[in-house]
C-alpha cells in the first residue's frame, strides 16, 4: 500500500485528534503517504482530501473536537453515494482507509467494503462507549470527567438549597456515561436504558432519602432513546412529591468537547498506531479495540451488532452506596 486516507465521522469525541495524529505518524513511519478526508463520508463523496504530513498533525494531541471535521452523511447510505466516494478514492490513488468513529461510521465502512473492495480499519471514537470489541472507546473517559465536574458543581447548589437535581447525561442507547458519572458523583439514583426504572421507583428512592435525613439528592438520568425524557420523569416526581424542590439540568454537548484526558490520549494513540499497522499488514474490515490492556480486532459486523453489556456490579453498587 502506497497511500491511505484517515477520516473522522459521526459525533466528535475528545481524543479523535490524538488518534488521527497516531495513525498519520505511524503510516508515515512505515513509508506510506497519508491524506485526511474532511467531514467523513461527505468529504469522501465530494473529494475533499488534504495531504497530511507528520508536521500537519503537530500540536493537536491535546485538542478536543477533530481537525478533520465530522458529519453524519445520508448520501453515503445509498449505493450511488458510495459509488461516488469510491470513484474519488480511485482518482486520488487511495488504497486503504482508517475510519475513526462510532457504530454509524462502521456500518458505512462495512457496506462500502461489500460494494467495493477497499480495505478499512476502524478506531472506536465515541463518548458513548457503546461498541462491542473494546473495553473503552475514545472520548468516553473525558466525557465522564466532564459530566462529573458538572455534577460536583450542581451538588454545591443542590446542597445550599436542599434541592433534588435530575441531571441528564448523554450516551444514546447506552447507560455507560450515566453509571460511571453517577458513581463518581455520588448520585442517589441512576436511570439507564438497560434497566427500566419507573417514576414510582424514583419517588420511592427520594422519599427514603428524606426519611434518612438527606437534604439534597442527585439523580443521574441517561438520555436513552429520547433525549429530554428527564423532564417527563421530573414532572411525575413533582406531582407525587410536591414538597420537594426539584430542578432539571441537561448537560448536553458540553460532554463532547474539551481537552482529552490522559487516558483518552493514550488510548487513542495506541489505537491509531495499531490501526495503521493493521491496515499495512493486510487486515481489513475490522475495528481496533483494547481489552484487558491488549490490542484486539473485531469484525465491523460484530462491533456494530453485538451489544456491549454494562458491568452489573457497578449498577448494583449505586444502590449500596446511596443509602
Ligand atoms: O453518539 C454521541 C452522541 O453525543 C450521543 O451521546 C447523543 O445521543 C448524540 O451523539 C447526539 O447527536 P447530535 O450531536 O447529532 O445531536
Protein architecture, described:
The chain has 2 domains: 3-139 and 260-305, Rossmann fold; 143-256, Phosphofructokinase domain (Rossmann fold, 3-Layer(aba) Sandwich), CATH 3.40.50. It is 43% helix and 18% strand. The protein is built from 11 helices and 11 strands. The chain has helices at residues 16-29, 40-46, 79-91, 103-115, 140-161, 176-184, 199-211, 229-240, 262-280, 300-305, 312-321, and strands spanning 3-8, 33-37, 49-52, 96-101, 120-124, 164-169, 189-191, 217-222, 246-250, 286-291, 294-299. Substrate binds at residues 126-128, 163, 170-172, 223, 247, 253-256.
Work out the strand percent.
15-25%
| Overall pLDDT score | 96
Q: What's the order of the H and E elements?
A: EHEHEHEHEHEHEHEHEHEEHH
The biggest sheet amounts to:
7 strands, mixed
Q: Tell me the number of strands.
A: 11
Bound molecules: 6-O-phosphono-beta-D-fructofuranose
Low-confidence stretches: none
- The count of helical stretches stands at 11
Shape: elongated
CATH topology of the largest domain: Rossmann fold
CATH class of the largest domain: Alpha Beta
Strand order of the largest sheet: 3-2-1-4-5-10-11
CATH architecture type of the largest domain: 3-Layer(aba) Sandwich
Helical fraction equals: 40-55%
Structural class: alpha/beta
Computed over alpha carbons, the radius of gyration is: 22 Å
Count of the separate structural domains: 2
Distance between the termini: 59 Å
Amino acid at each position: 500500500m502506497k497511500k491511505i486516507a484517515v477520516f473522522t465521522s459521526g459525533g466528535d469525541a475528545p481524543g479523535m485528534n490524538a488518534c488521527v495524529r497516531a495513525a498519520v505518524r505511524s503510516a508515515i513511519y512505515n513509508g506510506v503517504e497519508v491524506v485526511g478526508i474532511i467531514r467523513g463520508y461527505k468529504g469522501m463523496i465530494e473529494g475533499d482530501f488534504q495531504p497530511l504530513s507528520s508536521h500537519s498533525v503537530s500540536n493537536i494531541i491535546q485538542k478536543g473536537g477533530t481537525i478533520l471535521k465530522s458529519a453524519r452523511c445520508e448520501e453515503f447510505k445509498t449505493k450511488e453515494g458510495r459509488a461516488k466516494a469510491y470513484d474519488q478514492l480511485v482518482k486520488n490513488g487511495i488504497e486503504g482507509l482508517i475510519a475513526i468513529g462510532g457504530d454509524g461510521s462502521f456500518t458505512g465502512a462495512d457496506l462500502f467494503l461489500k460494494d467495493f473492495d477497499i480495505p478499512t480499519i476502524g478506531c472506536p471514537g465515541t463518548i458513548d462507549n457503546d461498541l462491542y470489541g473494546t473495553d473503552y472507546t475514545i472520548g468516553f473517559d473525558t466525557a465522564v470527567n466532564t459530566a462529573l465536574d458538572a455534577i460536583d458543581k450542581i451538588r454545591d447548589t443542590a446542597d445550599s438549597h436542599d434541592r433534588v437535581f435530575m441531571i441528564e447525561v448523554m450516551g444514546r442507547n447506552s447507560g455507560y456515561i450515566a453509571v460511571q458519572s453517577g458513581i463518581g458523583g455520588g448520585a442517589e439514583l441512576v436511570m439507564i436504558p438497560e434497566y427500566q426504572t419507573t417514576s414510582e421507583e424514583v419517588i420511592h428512592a427520594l422519599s427514603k432519602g428524606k426519611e434518612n435525613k438527606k437534604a439534597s439528592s442527585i439523580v443521574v438520568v441517561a438520555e436513552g432513546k429520547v433525549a429530554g425524557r428527564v423532564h417527563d420523569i421530573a414532572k411525575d416526581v413533582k406531582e407525587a412529591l410536591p414538597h420537594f424542590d426539584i430542578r432539571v439540568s441537561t448537560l448536553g454537548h458540553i460532554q463532547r468537547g474539551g481537552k482529552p484526558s490522559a487516558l483518552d490520549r493514550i488510548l487513542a494513540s495506541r489505537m491509531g498506531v495499531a490501526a495503521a499497522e493493521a491496515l499495512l499488514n493486510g487486515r481489513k474490515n475490522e475495528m481496533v479495540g483494547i481489552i484487558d490492556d491488549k490490542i484486539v480486532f473485531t469484525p465491523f459486523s460484530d462491533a456494530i451488532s453485538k451489544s456491549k453489556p454494562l458491568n452489573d456490579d457497578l449498577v448494583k453498587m449505586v444502590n449500596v452506596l446511596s443509602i
